[in-house]
Design a protein that fits this description.
The protein has about 350 residues and is an alpha+beta fold. The protein contains 7 helices and 17 strands. It binds 2-acetamido-2-deoxy-beta-D-glucopyranose (NAG) (2 copies).
Length: about 350
């Protein structure tokens, strides 16, 4: 649980700033189950693509797939395979510069661009590499040169600059990346997906009713409770909004209420969301019929699954994103088992 919250928090992007970001990771092959090369693409902090060397295929989330043709995504897959080769070559060069020192090594790359809603002129771009969790080489967009942060990156800097990759990358970040970001924002930000809502009772550890909304987009959604038409604020626990695997969101609210109260009064869960013409009202079922079958931890299960999925998908990202937040050097990936999310815990 904690991992999810941290990651969600790190990926948070303010409403006015839009970001397109790519994260590449190469690890010493054969040491772990971790694929030799993985790439993740994030739009406004939301993962939209994943590429792995293990099957050399690109997985595109449905919500963004619609913005382009099949042909486009096929050529993107081709490009990613090329990027894999280029990146693993750089990784080999870097390992050579460090004299092939023993143990597992990682090369990470983080690049992307940002723009503000209200300002079509100011954009920001970056392209940074980290070796074994430390800054290695980065692009300076002012001087249009590569900065070798580590001595071992100097050869790479000279090779890249002789090939003009500094200029090429600047063009990509300031033009193509921004165009792509605008297109993706235009085609996906206005989408509205209606929540699916379920209301059910739980008896353990104490009697409570759960109102669960899932599958909605955009993220902002409000859940409130009413008793005989009057707002209820007491004994309400509103949970954090969590991302689903398909780019939509889920949220739940829990109301602690004695069983006899439920019999005497009409309790309703009220959902407000931009996809809805008017608020959605769901009545709490009487006579205890918890519609998720007999209890059996119906609360924990979905969250545990989501935790596992999210942790798996962003395990690659986590290290680098932590780096971005703390701005104190790349973190080694894959994360050490001890620091990994424990999907067996729930009920924060
Ligand atoms: C690699 O080996 C060379 C030659 O022995 C040495 O000069 C250099 O300092 C070594 N580099 C590292 C990072 O250990
Ligand atoms: C780029 O280089 C300029 C001039 O050397 C320097 O002032 C600036 O801080 C550098 N930018 C980054 C992001 O390192």
């Amino acid at each position: 649980m904690e991992n999810i919250l941290l990651i969600t928090c790190f990926l948070y992007v303010s409403a006015d700033t839009h970001t397109l970001q790519y994260l590449y990771t190469a690890v010493t092959p054969g040491l772990t189950d971790f694929p030799e090369f993985t790439a993740v693409g994030l739009l406004d902090g939301e993962q939209f693509m994943f590429y792995s060397s293990s099957n050399r295929s690109l997985i595109i989330k449905d919500w963004i797939k619609k913005t382009n043709s099949e042909t486009y995504w096929r050529s993107e897959t081709q490009d990613m395979r090329g990027n894999q080769d280029t990146f693993t070559n750089t990784f080999t060069t870097a390992m050579k510069m460090f004299n092939y020192s023993e143990g597992d090594h990682t090369l990470q790359r983080m690049f992307g661009c940002e723009r503000d809603d209200d300002d079509d002129v100011t954009t920001r771009g970056y392209d940074q590499y980290g070796y074994d969790g430390e800054d290695f080489i980065s692009l300076n967009l002012t001087t249009v040169t590569w900065t070798a942060v580590k001595l071992q990156a100097v050869t790479i800097k000279h090779t890249w600059e002789s090939k003009g990759s500094n200029k090429h990358q600047k063009n990509f970040l300031e033009r193509d990346c921004i165009d792509l970001l605008k297109k993706y924002n235009r085609d996906t930000l206005n989408r509205k997906v209606v929540p699916e809502v379920s209301v059910f009772q739980k008896h353990t550890p104490s009697p409570e009713v759960v109102c669960h909304a899932t599958g909605f987009f955009p993220k902002a959604l409000n859940i409130t409770w009413q008793k005989d038409g009057e707002d209820v604020h007491k004994d309400v626990e509103l949970r954090e909004t969590l991302p689903n695997q398909d780019g939509s969101f889920q949220k739940r609210s829990i109301l602690k209420v004695p069983a006899e109260e439920l019999q005497k009064h009409i309790y309703t869960c009220v959902i407000q969301h931009s996809s809805l013409k008017k608020e959605l009202v769901r009545e709490v079922p009487k006579d205890g019929g918890s519609d998720g079958g007999s209890d059996g931890g119906s609360d924990g299960a979905p969250i545990a699954i989501i935790t596992a999925v999210v942790v798996a998908l962003v395990a690659v990202v986590a290290g680098i994103v932590v780096w971005k937040k703390k701005n104190s050097g790349f973190k080694p990936v894959p994360p050490k088992p001890s620091s990994e999310g424990d999907s067996s815990t729930n009920n924060s």
